[in-house]
Amino acid sequence: MKKLKIAFVCVHNSCRSQMAEAITKELASDFFEAYSAGTETKPRINQDAVRIIKDLYNVDMNQTQKSKLLDDIPQELDVLVTMGCNVECPFIPTQHREDWGLDDPTGLPDEAFLHTAEVIKEKLLLLRKRIENKEIDIQ
Questions:
Q1: Is the pTM of this model over 0.85?
Q2: How far apart are CA 68 and CA 96, in angstroms?
Q3: Is the pLDDT of residue 24 over 90?
Q4: Are 19 and 36 in contact (CB under 8 A)?
Q5: d(CA 96, CA 113)
Q6: How far are the Cα atoms of 20, 24, 67 from residue 127, in angstroms, in the given order?
Q7: Distance between CA atoms of residues 89 and 74, nearest Å
Q8: Cα–Cα dist 45/62, whole Å
Q9: DSSP of 58-69, one letter per residue?
Q10: Which of 5, 42, 73, 75 can pair with 35 through a Cys bridge, CB separation 3.0 to 4.6 Å?
Q11: With contact defined as beta carbons under 8 Å apart, do 25 and 53 qualify?
Q12: Average pLDDT of the residues in 127-136
């Protein structure tokens, strides 16, 4: 099976979607080709998110990722995951779309970032299992 193109979309592409891209690349790069993007960008990725992902996965998002706009990622995706941005995301063609409804941990203690990372990991692994079990039909 070919790798599925998955994109995580949030407003600023600086925290949750960046964490999801890094976690996916670390835990499921054999299955997903991961991207993240936003409807706006920030000058840099949230440094608390960078530190937490470095602690958990030894991945330095400052070196491997940057804040991107929707136009900077492939426009033909297999899976689109919105992170719970409370905004209407623009239409992007995809075979499957879901919203993970994650609260933004920006400005909160490390526990909030750790919780966000754990929820992303759980949802990612469950999404993969649902696709592998054909509960989600992706060609």
A1: yes
A2: 21
A3: yes
A4: no
A5: 27
A6: 13, 11, 24
A7: 16
A8: 7
A9: ---HHHH----B
A10: 73
A11: no
A12: 96
For the chain, the straight-line distance linking the first and the last C-alpha, in angstroms and rounded, comes to 10
Which of the 8 DSSP states describes residue 44? S
Q: Judge whether 5 and 81 are in contact, CB under 8 Å.
A: no
Mean pLDDT of the chain, nearest integer: 93
Q: Which two tokens stand for residue 30?
A: 């054999």
pLDDT at 87 exceeding the cut of 70: no
Task: Please give the single-letter amino acid code of residue 25.
Answer: K
Tokens standing for 9? 């979309």
- Are the C-beta atoms of residues 30 and 125 closer than 8 Å to each other? no
Question: What pairing do the DSSP bridges indicate for beta strands 32-38 and 77-82?
Answer: unpaired
Tokens 């779309």 correspond to 97
Question: Which segments of the chain are extended strands (E)?
Answer: 4-10, 32-38, 77-82, 94-99
d(CA 23, CA 83): 14
4-132 belongs to CATH 3.40.50.2300: yes
Task: State the residue for tokens 């991107």.
Answer: 68
Task: Give 85 or 131, the one with higher predicted confidence.
Answer: 131
